[in-house]
């Protein structure tokens, strides 16, 4: 059995072109992923096939070419831009005598490097354990079943069976911890819903500029870099908007084409912020040639997690990188903002984004004129506490005239409170 390297700093990349659109991957994106993982690319091996080979994924001749490149260049790992089966990984490792990593394993490795919070680390570990469950055999093929005899009798398990049992136990423990985290998040969401604070979640393809935009709006100081999956742990900040009040802005993990199902399942608690949001800010790298495909990939992931019906406002970011990129707001047929063109890096158009958010989130307002008797001073105090009194005057008979503006939700709540506390109908004081 070959030595198993802990990390691979120098890699051979393998990319296969398939005629079916659903099987295609992007070679330039693989290079970005490898760079984000901190790995040096020694060579790129490309091939074309109609279907993957069951033995090596590529043909036997191409597999020999990869093995020769590993020996010649001294590579420590071979990275495929595709998902490999455990058997294909095992066969390739035996042939190349080095680690073989597929696209899913590479993304999981990047996530492991990026995780900062306790929750993020748990989610990554869960995804990794689920991924390696079917791949344990390759690390223990040199071990026999434990021997019998005096002092040598074991529990009757191979090392592989022992590891699988330990894995199942660890996965169960992590799931229990993540369930606790999810309950805590749900409590926070319920509190925001009771206070009727709108939640806006940033979504988009990885490296579209979500964290830069988040920092520009909230001055949160979230880590942002020109690399894939710079953000892994969700960050929430409160923001004040005119005519709307407080909102919660959530920065979430970026999406990528063919996002591994292990990650979608593991990051369910994180993605719940997206699912429960009142509005999604879909951040798009407008300077990326693949923007149409990236938008489609994000839409597919949103549908997969059940957030496809959440209202969206597209944010066309990085207008500083295109010709004639001017900040503006595009409106749909109903007169609602549908797209905002801006640059999170330079700050150009950020004010337009805030205007668009106000227009999309501003609740239906109620404007009424009230005439209150002097005995309703408590109601006057409530109206001032809601910051809804626009104008006040005192009539000759001592009654108060108030011009009031508030959201329809606050108005309905106030009517109910007045009826319960004072037994009065607030509508009866409307002029």
From TrEMBL:
Function, as annotated: GTPase that associates with the 50S ribosomal subunit and may have a role during protein synthesis or ribosome biogenesis.
UniProt cross-references to InterPro entries, sorted A to Z: EFG_III/V, G_HFLX_dom, GTP-bd, GTP-bd_M, GTPase_HflX, GTPase_HflX_N, GTPase_HflX_N_sf, HflX_C
GO cellular component, one term: cytoplasm
Protein name: GTPase HflX
Residues the record lists as binding Mg(2+): 211, 231
Occurrences of domain Hflx-type G (ranges): 198-365
Cofactor(s) of this protein: Mg(2+)
Location relative to the cell: Cytoplasm
Family in the record: Belongs to the TRAFAC class OBG-HflX-like GTPase superfamily. HflX GTPase family.
PANTHER family recorded: GTP-BINDING PROTEIN 6-RELATED, GTP-BINDING PROTEIN HFLX
Binding-site list for GTP: 204-211, 229-233, 251-254, 317-320, 343-345
Summary of subunit composition and partner proteins: Monomer. Associates with the 50S ribosomal subunit.
Source organism: Pseudidiomarina taiwanensis
Protein's gene: hflX
Name of one Pfam family that matches: GTP-bdg_N
Top-rank taxon: Bacteria
UniProt entry tagged with the keyword Magnesium: yes
Alphabetized SUPFAM superfamilies for the sequence: EF-G C-terminal domain-like (SSF54980), P-loop containing nucleoside triphosphate hydrolases (SSF52540)
Coiled coil spans: none
Keywords of this entry: Cytoplasm, GTP-binding, Magnesium, Metal-binding, Nucleotide-binding
């Amino acid at each position: 059995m070959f030595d198993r390297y802990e990390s691979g700093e120098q890699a051979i990349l393998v990319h296969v072109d398939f005629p079916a659109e659903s099987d295609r991957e992007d070679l330039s994106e693989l290079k970005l992923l490898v760079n984000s993982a901190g790995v040096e690319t020694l060579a790129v091996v490309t091939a074309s096939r109609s279907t993957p080979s069951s033995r090596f994924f590529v043909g036997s001749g191409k597999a020999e070419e990869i093995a020769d490149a590993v020996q010649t260049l001294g590579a420590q790992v071979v990275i495929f831009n595709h998902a490999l089966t455990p058997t294909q990984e095992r066969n390739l490792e035996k042939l190349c005598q080095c680690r073989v990593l597929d696209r899913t394993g590479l993304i999981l490795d990047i996530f492991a490097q990026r995780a900062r919070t306790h929750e993020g680390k748990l989610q990554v570990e869960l995804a990794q354990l689920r991924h390696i469950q079917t791949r344990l055999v390759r690390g223990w093929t040199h071990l026999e079943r434990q021997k019998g005899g005096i002092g040598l009798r074991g529990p009757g398990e191979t090392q592989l069976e022992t590891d699988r049992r330990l894995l199942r136990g660890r996965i169960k423990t992590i799931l229990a911890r993540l369930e606790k985290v999810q309950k805590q998040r749900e409590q926070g969401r319920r509190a925001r819903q009771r206070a009727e604070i709108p939640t806006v979640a940033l979504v988009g393809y990885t490296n579209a500029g979500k964290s830069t935009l988040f920092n520009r709006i909230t001055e949160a100081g979230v880590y942002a870099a020109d690399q894939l999956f710079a953000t892994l742990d969700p960050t929430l900040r409160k923001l004040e908007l005119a005519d709307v009040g407080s909102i919660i802005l959530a920065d979430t993990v970026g999406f990528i084409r063919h996002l591994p199902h292990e990650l979608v399942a593991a990051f369910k608690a994180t993605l719940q912020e997206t699912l429960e949001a009142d509005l999604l800010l879909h951040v798009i790298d407008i300077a990326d040639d693949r923007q149409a495909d990236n938008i489609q990939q994000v839409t597919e992931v949103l549908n997969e997690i059940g957030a496809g019906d959440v209202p969206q406002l597209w944010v066309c970011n990085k207008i500083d990188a295109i010709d004639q990129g001017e900040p503006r707001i595009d409106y749909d047929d109903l007169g609602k903002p549908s797209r905002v063109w801006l640059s999170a890096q330079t700050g150009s158009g950020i004010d337009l984004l805030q205007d668009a958010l106000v227009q999309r989130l501003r609740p239906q307002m109620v404007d009424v004129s009230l005439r209150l008797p002097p005995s309703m001073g408590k109601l006057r105090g409530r109206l001032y506490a809601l910051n809804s009194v626009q104008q006040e005057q005192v009539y000759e008979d001592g009654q108060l005239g108030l011009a009031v503006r508030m959201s329809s939700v606050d108005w309905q709540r106030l009517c109910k409170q007045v009826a319960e506390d004072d037994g009065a109908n607030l509508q009866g004081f409307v002029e």
